[in-house]
Design brief:
about 250 residues, 5 strands, alpha+beta
């Protein structure tokens, strides 16, 4: 909008330049309706100016938000990357970490599962952190609690349970129990742990992190100090991992 006002001002100045005032006269001021007509007529002749101004405004907002997110990532580094309750895949001591905020009900998260699994399997130095981020309803919350309870019961079985939940469109309690049984979890213990205070607190903490970071959808990824929203090409994530590795080694 600054550019629009600037253009209008230039036009107004151009009109006034043709009739300079005498030294003893006060500067001429155009009436509001005339200024508005000048702006209107200019925009009708050059409508692309509006598009350019909106694009520029969005670019500045995106840059400001990215800068804000970087500061949050730095200030909350340990909560994001080193929370003891978060499940981890790949190399626990990997040189680069990818963090994913996800929801078991999210179709975009499910479409990325295969690609992410391949990335973790092929990059032996990658550390992958799962942030349970249930935002799509009560079933999502139940599934997230069950997944963290599985990790608490047997960290080695979390990944298989996670994959089973991602593959299932049915997140009812019965379906979750069946998936737990199939991967060899103690279902009774799982149910008890699901309602434990540490697991509730972990999910609340992830929600608070998401709010602080401005995450409003899943999946969302963090690599280094960059937040990547949405279902992105896994090749793009892998490239970011490579860039982060080069920057830190």
């Amino acid at each position: 909008m600054t550019r629009l006002l600037f253009c209008a001002a230039l036009l107004a100045v151009g009109l006034l330049a043709g009739a300079p005032a005498r030294a003893e006269e006060a500067p001429t001021t155009l009436p509001r309706d005339e200024v508005e007509k000048i702006v209107h007529d200019y925009l009708m002749r050059e409508p692309e100016v509006i598009y350019d101004a909106i694009q520029e405004l969005q670019k500045r907002r995106d840059a400001a938000e990215a800068d804000r997110q970087k500061k949050v990532i730095v200030s909350k580094h340990d909560e994001i990357f080193q929370s003891a309750i978060d499940p981890v895949a790949g190399d626990p001591k990997g040189d680069v970490t990818v963090v994913e905020f996800f929801d078991y009900h999210c179709p975009y998260c499910r479409t990325m599962v295969g690609g992410l699994r391949s990335m973790v399997q092929s990059d032996k130095r990658l550390r992958f952190v799962f942030k349970e981020f249930p935002v799509l309803g009560p079933d999502s919350i139940v599934a997230a609690r069950a997944a963290l309870a599985a990790k608490q019961q047997d960290p080695a079985k979390y990944y298989d349970f996670h994959m089973a939940l991602m593959a299932s469109r049915d997140l009812s309690e019965d379906s979750i129990k069946r998936a737990a049984t199939q991967v060899g979890l103690d279902v009774k213990r799982l149910q008890a742990d699901m309602d434990s205070e540490p697991i509730k607190q972990a999910i609340d903490a992830n929600r608070a992190l998401g709010e602080a970071l401005g995450i409003n959808g899943t999946p969302s990824f963090i690599v280094g100090d960059k937040l990547v929203p949405g279902a992105v090409d896994v090749a793009q994530l892998a490239a970011m991992v490579g860039q982060q590795r080069s920057a830190t080694n």
